[in-house]
Amino acid sequence: MVLNTCISVEILWVTGKNDTITRINIQGSVIEKFVCQYNPVDISVTGCGDLIYSDEVNRTVNIVRQKIIKKLITERNLENDWLPWGLCSTRSGDILVNLHKQDLGKNKIVCYKGTDIIREIEKDKHGNHIFTKGDYMLYVTENKNGDICIVDRNSETVLTVDSTGSVRSRYDGKAAGRKNSFEPRCIATDSLGQIIVTDFSNDCLHILNENGNFLMCVGNCGLDKPSGLSVDTIGRLWVGLCFAQKIRVIPHLKKTESCCQC
After folding, report:
1. What is the pLDDT of residues 153-184, one digit of tens each?
2. Which residues pair with residue 212 across a beta bridge?
3. Interior CA angle at 152 toward 256 and 101, to 5°?
4. Of 232, 228, 195, whose CA–CA distance to 214 is shortest?
5. For the chain, counts of helices (H) and of strands (E)
6. Helix, strand, coil % over all residues of the chain, rounded to 5
């Protein structure tokens, strides 16, 4: 898998399966790289431009400042046996972390302010688990309206959850009418509040509005097994291609209610 996250219009952090995180520009030139102790599960960038990544082996979330790796969240800040997997930095500076309990196949989203837990998303108001049990991580991001947008690969759905922890929508890909079963991977949002999701099995992107309703698909752009995804500061999509180990940059998408392919 190629995980990627934008810093600016021209700069991107990329990681794969070699314990290395690399900073590259849009021309593909390497600006900086460093080797982690173990391969990062997920990466994100804070509002200050610092790189953060999750390390499930050491059970930490780490931050890179001035080329120095520091532990931001340690196992002391985690419940017993929960592993940090998917993560993102919010606009307010908090960190959303997908915690996974491997022996039970459980997932939840925890919001950290520093090392303090300020919110958990695991069950709805009726006490039912929001996320499906399984062995896959949750991909998580924050939308401009404060919703948390999540890919649950264990149920192959995209969820939007509001600030109270209530599920606003679930999207299963059927509205797109693609040939193969929906296989969502990474997720991002843009300045319009649109939700963009990579569809690994259909070689395309699904675009949803901020309410989680289907708008359109983007395909026929050489998106062979898209996995990593990020949106830069001018709205371009940087899509990581899993097997090709390449990044494809797609121009800004305008808001539309029609279904089309580029």
Report:
1. 999 999 999 988 899 999 999 999 999 999 99
2. none
3. 155
4. 195
5. 0, 23
6. 0, 50, 50
